[in-house]
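As a next step, the fold was encoded as tokens, giving this record:
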Amino acid sequence: MPPSQEFRIIGRSWPRHDAREKVLGRPIYASDFTMPGMLHGRALRSLYPSARILSIDTSEAEKLPGVVCVLTHKDVPKNEMEMALPGRMAEATAGAQMATQPILADGRVRFLGEAIALVAAESPEAAAQALDLIRVEYEELPGVYDSLEAMKQGAPKVHESGNILQRWHVRKGDVGSGFEEADVILERTYHVQLLDHAYMETEGGVAWVDPDGTLVMKVGTQVVEHYTDVTEALQIPRNKIRLIAAPMGGGFGGREDVTVEILVGLLAWHTRRPVRLVYSRDESILAHGKRNAYVLRYKMGAKRSGEITALEAEVVSDSGAYAALTPWILYYTTATATGPYRIPDVLVDASAVYTNNTFASAFRGFGSVQACFAYEGHMDAMAGELGMSPREFRERNYLKKGDTISSGWALESEPMLDELTSRAWEALGPPPKREPGKKIGRGMAATMVPYGRMAWTHDSSTAWVGMEADGTAMVRCAAPDPGGGQGSSLVAIAAEVLGLPMSRVSIGPADSHMAPRAGTTTATRQLFMSGNAVLKAAREVRESLVAQAAQMLGAREADIELVEGDALTPDGRRLGLAQVVREAIASGRPVESLAKYDAPVADTIDPDTGQGKPFNDFTFGVQVAEVEVDEETGQVRVRRFVTAFDVGKAINPSAVEGQLQGGVGMGLGDALMEEVVIDEGFTRNPHLMDYKLPTTLDTPDIETIVLESGQGLGPFGAKGIGEPALIPTRATIVNAVSDAIGVQLREAPLTPERVYRAMRSGTD
């Protein structure tokens, strides 16, 4: 693409390529998909959070009319899921206690709802009845349900290896000296609750065996590569398993782990018939990974002039019964524990601990969101101790280009935090007048969030772009789209480069047999990784088309532009791309390209000090909010909210605005109402009647401010915004409520009862 060419699509708002079909309700989600002769699968789940299984009797269930098979751990060729670690990750996590997770419980259950047996039957009713007929004899065992208790000597062991899963550390400078330089030192502890993804569509999928013996799965997943987990469990060749990522009714990280893939695959492989397995809402909340609960102790020192001198943080994460992705979530927490602030001396010790709670894993924010709640709460508290406004204290300590973060890495781009802050506060407007019976407060939070995986691991994505003889184009890339518009962004990139309207570019399904590997739709990485892969492939195709068009038009290649499906010369001559493509094919020129993008790779971090380059880049943002608190009830209402981020380059501004508003909506629930309540291992609210979610009636006016620095590593200078949009919201609202009532609140969610008690007692 000539440097002088204006963007035709990139940077302009356009409807997603699949928007019309979704509005009309036409996509077939995994839980909607049916096949002739399909069986219905169900899983029997543990009634206890910690118990020994003495016996499993399936005989009565097997006799039930309509039941085709009943499976237990004995029927799984390899009954364990291991965390496969690439060399660099294994090197940095040496000594971690990565306990394997059984696919079906074998002799022991470690959390309420752990899968014990599977049933496939001719009808959903027969499958449900069969579960009632399976007899499991348990011996209850002592459990541990608090992460701090689990670390103590003599606590019940969740796994024989012990309860400590993982530790990470940061050592920068000398915190002892830093605290000696401080005029004010403040120590506080913050608590982050356990949360559920609560997506509209629960986990589900259909599996069948093709005539050639290939096991095919159509599943709602964020990771096409999960087919490899199925091959391991079933011990069949990888080329005999095909996974198709179905449209998803929400992901938010909850489909990054294996959910139904192995279970439904086992049933289809054993019965040789199509099988559908869909979780009920209760089953979903009981059995899939949650956002980790955290306890975070922060100690900060600062001079009277406002400069931070030292930070010490001790972080404990509740992993629940199994490891899942907690070790990497904890790393993100550790690496971002200091927030977007210049702090010369830092000490962070972070631990992940096994308990007999539901296992925790990926959730939008991936460790950064827990850290943000603590460091932003502490910035407000410290500002109060110094007699400064929260804004002034932050602005004195914001990171600038060239400053070193806690890992010793110097920022290579300008965070733009000052401009983001001033724009956000300006948009919020003048302070409101006091209202009778209401306490009014304002709060803010700033953040830095990585997009893409750790810089010290090797990440790559591959994409294929090809032209058809009629001048249309096809993109193939196994990047699942959980609803964030990832697929549309890839279509837009290809259309921009190839000079086509978006209507003439299609993207194929995320299919392990048909699309090149793209890696996971997680870590806010797909625009960065797959976007660059599509950009590279499209540019290679464009180069060939331009060469062919130049030859046909008798012009220089540098003068050819591709616009709206035509090849143009400066003097107005043109050819339709369909004609150019046909001539290119006839002359042997390539009209397709398979391209691979590799993220920059840094040296492995030092696991003892955390020093090194943690991530390739960060997205920076600031949010401000105005809230009112009812003095009689403690009820909180968010009146106004402003969210401001530098996105590098907005590929689709309307989609960016949607992500920013969606992040605030989700963060509203985190701040005010959402929590999975587990009491001694038993989940007390495994349904949406008691797991409260915000609605449109709870959502304030949200103003979005988008800066475009062009400094991102993604296509055309874009940064990732999917996860960053959520990160500061909870802290922003909690800080605003704390400002309103004059008491710092350090534990979410801010239920009316919690806020009321704080107002009356004067403490959190």
Summary: The chain has 19 helices and 28 strands. The chain has a mean pLDDT of 96.
